[in-house]
Specification:
271 residues, alpha/beta, Rossmann fold, seven-stranded mixed β-sheet, six-stranded mixed β-sheet, 8 helices, binds S-adenosylmethionine, Daptide_MTase
């Protein structure tokens, strides 16, 4: 098994570990957002429309340019551009923003010309302008450790125009759940490839691990296994943090679909 340097020391457990053991020397283990994993993420991103629908509905009520935080390869950026808005897409990973730039290059200038990709850390950025809406979708707030989140809240506040809104999604875990929870679904990518998506979360734990493995690996040759460990930030905790950072949460909308855990969309205003 090959291991990308970012993953050295990351133990896989349960079904994900069994699957990697079964692949033996073929397995190439990488992070879901590094050079090898980014295409896997991009392949499966965009196959769940519910969050996009909710965000577009909210954005239609909010005039002005949009800041898409942790934009990745642009799953949300492109629908936002489709609304006719100017969009700044902020992303930390060079590999992900590279994919976004490639996708933009293939779009008409009328659309491409309204998008500004920026490589930056969402917990510490200064763009020198303000936005009608700042969006942090895909429950990506949970990628930030607790000590980095005050920086995010401060930066967003500094970039919101008067009357602007911070639209942020997070996961609504079941506080009554107990034990270790391992789930597996088959996820079909835009390429037609099918992946086993294995998610592991222990009740009360502050992280969950998601691993993507091709459902039908070739008999020989390398097989990319992309994994990532994501923080779990329950909605009630996020609301408390936002309020402490000087925001008022104006609405909480459940996002249908999205697999085992429910996601919610919060709309917050800086006071
Ligand atoms: C779950 S993906 C979401 C991407 C995109 N919004 C989507 O819906 O497909 C999370 C993204 O956050 C990026 N990311 C992680 N930490 C970040 C940070 N501190 N600042 C900016 N982007 C970050 C990752 O590189 C990844 O592209």
């Amino acid at each position: 098994m090959l291991l990308s340097p970012a993953l050295a020391g990351t133990p896989l457990t349960g079904r994900a570990a069994e699957a990697v053991a079964g692949l033996g020397e073929q397995a190439v283990l990488c992070d879901l957002y590094d050079e090898a994993g980014a295409p896997v993420y991009h392949d499966i991103a965009g196959t769940t429309p519910h969050e996009v629908r909710e965000l577009l509905a909210a954005l239609r009520r909010l005039p002005g340019p949009v800041l898409d935080l942790a934009a990745g390869s642009g799953r949300l950026t492109f629908p936002f551009l489709g609304l006719g808005r100017e969009v700044t897409a902020l992303e930390l990973s060079e590999d992900m923003i590279g994919l976004l730039r490639e996708r933009l290059a293939a779009t008409p200038p009328s659309l491409r010309g309204r998008c500004t990709p920026v490589r930056a850390d969402m917990s510490d950025f200064a763009l020198g302008r303000r936005f009608g809406a700042v969006v942090l979708g895909t429950t990506s707030v949970s990628l930030l450790p607790p000590e980095a989140r005050p920086g995010l809240y401060r930066c967003v506040r500094e970039h919101l125009a008067p009357g602007g809104r911070f639209l942020i999604t997070t996961v609504e875990v079941d506080p009554a759940a107990d034990g270790t929870d391992e789930s597996e679904i088959l996820a079909e990518g835009q390429s037609g490839r099918t992946y086993r998506m294995i998610e592991q979360w222990s009740a009360g734990a502050t992280t969950r691990t998601v691993t993507m493995i091709p459902a039908e690996p070739p008999a020989e040759g390398p097989v990319t296994v992309a994994t990532t460990t994501i923080g779990v930030l329950p909605a009630q905790r996020l609301i408390a943090e936002l309020e402490q950072a000087g925001y008022a949460v104006r609405s909480l909308t459940p996002v249908p679909g999205g697999g085992r855990h429910h996601d919610v969309l919060l709309e917050a205003e800086a006071l």
